[in-house]
Amino acid sequence: MRYDFSFLSVQAQPGCEKVAELFGNEIELRTGLRPFEGGSPSIRFCTDASLPSKDCYRIEQDDRNLTFTAQGIRGLIYAYSLFLRKCVFHGSRITLTKNLDGFYEPDKRIRGHQCGYRTCPNTYDAWGKEEYARFYLDIMAFGCNTCEHIPTEPFNPNNPVMKYNPLDVAVWASELADEVDLDVSCWYPNEGDEEENEALALERRSAVLDAMPRIDAIFPPGGDPGEMDGDAFIKRCVAFSKLLKEKKPNAQMWPSAQAPHSKPTWAEDFLHELNKLPDEIDGVIMGPNHAFPLDEMRRKVPMKYPIRFYPDITHNVRCEYPVHFERDDWHYALASTLSRESVNPRPTEFRMLHRLTRPYLVGSVSYSEGVNDDVNKAVWSNMDFFPEVSLNETLCDYARFFLWQADAQRIADGIFGLERNWEGDPAENPHIESTLKIFEEEAEHAPELMNNWRFVLLLFRARCDAIVRRRRVFELGLIDEAKTAAQGDFAQAKAILKTDFEQEYYQIRASVGQLADRLFEQIGIQLDVENYGASGWERGATLDTVDRPITDRAWLLNRFDYADTLAESEQADFLARVFNRNKLNKGEYYFSLAEHGFHVLGERQEGEFYMDFQGDRAENNGSMPMCILKAFDHFRFAFRVGGFEAETDYKLRVTFKRTNDTVTDFTVKANGHTIHHGGFFGGEADEQFDREMLSDRFISATYLLPAGVFENGCIAVE
Question: Whole-model pTM?
């Protein structure tokens, strides 16, 4: 059933004038017309103090007349936003796509996102009052009730986009939040001289509490940053909480169980103090670098304390939830070029994470560094409100609310496509081209979308993906040709590798720079360091990483340059070794985490390991082959493999990133037999191999695997 709400009128009960004005602004933005004062269709805003909470609302629909009822402005914003999410706009025409009659109440009581004004974000540091006011309404459109600020960082005069002191922003940003009854949480670490001096810490916090007109929660991280012992950390939080509740009686203290790496007993010390059940602590936060997994945390933390989640929805690599976090197999070509903080719609991944964590939590405030995760914010918040909502409905809502000139289903399909673009080797993923086609066609059909930063952001990502795919397809073809030529003519092989891209590639590459200009003007996102003031290449500066090597083409050319430093009599043999370095004889086995992933190992790795990805770093400049871009960082690595020749000794060559002279119990086992036990890394060194085939900071070690350790040609190594 569809309902025509064109040329609607608005009526506001006393006390609802502000929300009626906000709604009128939204209608005018979409249709060019403000609502009328009488007649049908109509929307009426009312308050009812008897409703269970200010987060719930009621919508009563009588054909083309709607009544929105809530305790106050927060719930009424939720109500009118739901209406806008379900409407299609064509010029001045407004069509409601479904009946909205019902009572709406959120699943989780805490629903928010971090938006701290400081040096390192990729967007927030470029904002002023107008952008923050708009952001609040946008996150409330998907049910948020909390924004989180960071009032502690000093003003950085070297940041070219920051215009204000962070504390000043926290003050007026909390005022803006209060106008729409949005809770204000503050991320407030203990670090530096504050760790040693409680009086100084409380004095500084007192000044912040006095300055900010609204604070509903304080979030002190246990680590990252911070180096306090677990028990001292809780004691400090208790002292801070007493001050907090003295100045803001309804505010709450939520310390996080993020453990400093330097404190091995931090978790036990944290729990020891928490088990004293201090009333000054209102709940505990689960975040990155956590002391224990979520299920274990809920088992060990007293039930008195609910758990709030701090999910990292903004990062892609070297983070708590990397792309494909359940298998950690994001292809190095994409990870190298798009890096840690690129535009990253990941709806299906974050739905899975939400489902895994939901039973343990009272809600969440996400970790965010800017608008690169804008879709993820909407997806996560909507699940906190409506946990069983379909992703397609959420993404269509996103399109209807933010990109109303476009076809909502096409935009939803395009967002799903952007997530699928990151499956597997981009050279083998034709979805990348079809996804780009969706956004290019929408831009052609509705040119005004190019004035909407959310659409431009999605188009930017789609074109970046296409750049990576097209470059990789082209370069892999060159490498195949060069390998054939190298069998008889190394000069020809080098010439093939130096073949330039076609003009079409340079055109699409130039276009992403133009989109970056547009995005910086529209929303302030900093997509490189030099032109837009990003705080570093890792902070969303996609234009600084998108040209990183994604095949061995640059490395092979680097090896040709190295060959020129050798005696002429040695060059041919060296280049033959380079081109044949992974050529296997019968019964031999070669494995690279970057090239092959975990799924071929025959064994699941234990615990919460860290993948130290190298590909987006400046060192990936042609000096390193692609096979070493992923370095596994954990206490144990294991694999199982078969197919070896009987009664044959083998050598196991392992590439390591660095040595550690402090380790004395490094062990290599094969089928339970100890092959090496002692310091890093043992085994036999091969300086020539390291020099020729690896790069700086990487070394190899070779271990003898005697025939007797194999079992019918099979081996399990750890």
Answer: 0.96
Q: Say if residues 6 and 92 touch (Cβ distance below 8 Å).
A: yes
Pairing of β 65-70 and β 42-47: parallel
What b/e sequence results for 584-621 when a residue is b if at least 16 CB atoms lie within 10 Å of its CB, and e otherwise?
eeeeeeeebbbbebbeebeeeeeeeeebebbbbbeebe
- Reported CATH class of domain 110-404: alpha beta
Which of 440, 319, 299, 426 has its CA nearest to residue 360? 299
Give CA torsion, residues 509, 510, 516, 522, to 10 deg: -130
Give residues with Cβ within 8 angstroms of 584, minimum separation 6. Answer: 590
DSSP designation for 192: G
417: helix, strand or coil: helix
Interatomic CA distance for residues 235 and 278, integer angstroms: 9
SS3 of residue 641 by DSSP: strand
In angstroms, rounded to a whole number, what is the distance separating the alpha carbons of residues 165 and 152? Answer: 10
Assigned architecture for domain 3-104: 2-Layer Sandwich (3.30)
Is the per-residue pLDDT at 42 higher than 80?
Answer: yes
Give how far Cα 654 sits from Cα of 593, 674, 683, 704, Å. 12, 16, 9, 12
Pairing of strands 57-62, 42-47: unpaired
Q: Please, which residues bridge with residue 711 across strands?
A: 714
pLDDT at 585: 86
Helix, coil or strand: residue 320: coil
- pLDDT (tens digit, 9 = 90+) per residue, 215-242? 999 999 999 899 999 999 999 999 999 9
| Residues 6+ away with beta carbon under 8 Å from 654 | 681, 683, 700, 701, 702, 703
Tell me the pLDDT tens digit for each residue of 243-285: 999 999 999 999 999 999 899 999 999 999 999 999 999 999 9
Q: DSSP for 456-512, please give it.
A: HHHHHHHHHHHHHHHHHHHHHHHHHHHHHHHTT-HHHHHHHHTPPPPHHHHHHHHHH
Residue 330 above 90 pLDDT? yes
Domain ranges of the chain: 3-104, 110-404, 583-717
Per residue in 199-211, pLDDT (tens digit) is 999 999 999 999 9
Tokens of 615: 């590909």
Three-class SS state of 105: coil
CA distance 552 to 266: 44
CA pair distance 347, 541, nearest whole angstrom: 22
> Please, which residues have CB within 8 angstroms of residue 632's CB and are 6 or more apart in sequence?
593, 605, 609, 611, 612
Q: How many CA atoms, within 13 angstroms, populate the side-chain half-sphere of residue 653? A: 17
